[in-house]
Each structure stands twice: as structure tokens, then as C-alpha cells.
Design brief:
The chain is mainly β. It has strands at about 1-5, 10-15, 20-25, 30-40, 45-50, 55-60, 65-70, 75-80, 90-100, 105-110, 115-120. Strands 2, 4, 5, 6, 9, 10 and 11 form a seven-stranded mixed sheet that branches. A four-stranded antiparallel sheet has the order 1-3-8-7, with no helix packed on it. A hairpin with a 6-residue loop joins strand 4 and strand 5 (about 45-50).
């Protein structure tokens, strides 16, 4: 079982910045890729950014150049630095982690509870 706890959301003005954090805790698992997704009202959940354990990153086109994902493997924590916020960035942001059992290789994906980011114009 893996628990993901996000923090750092809030109400921001357009053009502002914030940093989201997601701490993962689990017993006897290896955490591979971690990522951030978001879901705006009436829309499907979409990938924002992901990062592998080796540090390779992937971003949605809509956030390239504004968002930066990073992780601290020692602390099992992933971060999302969000700059130049736009009202369209308003959504619940979810953290996820792809994990595998070190012996069986069994894989699973876990999600955090989400953190609200609201951007006013």
C-alpha cells in the first residue's frame, strides 16, 4: 500500500507562482514514475507532467515552459513548480505514482487525494 499526500494548492492571481508537493510513503515497494494530473470542472483528468526515477520528464504542451516537475528520490517526494499561472490552470491537481514490488515485480498505480488550485484573472 502506498499513500500519497499533496500540498501547496491555493487561490492565486494570474501570473503568480506556487509549488505543489507530493510525499509518497509505502512499505517494501519501488516507486518508478511519478506524475501530476489535473481535472477541471466538467473536463477529463489530464496529464500535466511526469518524471521517471532517473529524472526523465514529460510535459503537456499547455504547460511547457511554465511548469517544472522534479523529485527527491531519497524522500519519495515529487514537486511541481508552477509559474505564470493562467485562469485555465484552475483545477484539482492529483499526484500519482507507479510502483512495483521488488521481488514479484507486481505493478500498481496510486493516486493522492488532490489539491485545489484556483487562478483568478
Amino acid at each position: 500500500q502506498v499513500h500519497l499526500v499533496e500540498s501547496g494548492g491555493g487561490l492565486m492571481q494570474a501570473g503568480g507562482s506556487l509549488r505543489l508537493s507530493c510525499a509518497a510513503s509505502g512499505i517494501f515497494v519501488i516507486i518508478d514514475a511519478m506524475g501530476w494530473y489535473r481535472q477541471a470542472p466538467g473536463r477529463q483528468r489530464e496529464l500535466v507532467a511526469s518524471i521517471t526515477s532517473g529524472g526523465s520528464t514529460n510535459y503537456a504542451d499547455s504547460v511547457k515552459g511554465r511548469f517544472t516537475i522534479s523529485r527527491d528520490n531519497a524522500e519519495n517526494t515529487v514537486f511541481l513548480q508552477v509559474n505564470s499561472l493562467k485562469p485555465d490552470d484552475t483545477a484539482v491537481y492529483y499526484c500519482n505514482a507507479d510502483v512495483r514490488h521488488p521481488l514479484s515485480g507486481f505493478r500498481n498505480t496510486y493516486w493522492g487525494q488532490g489539491t485545489q488550485v484556483t487562478v483568478s484573472s
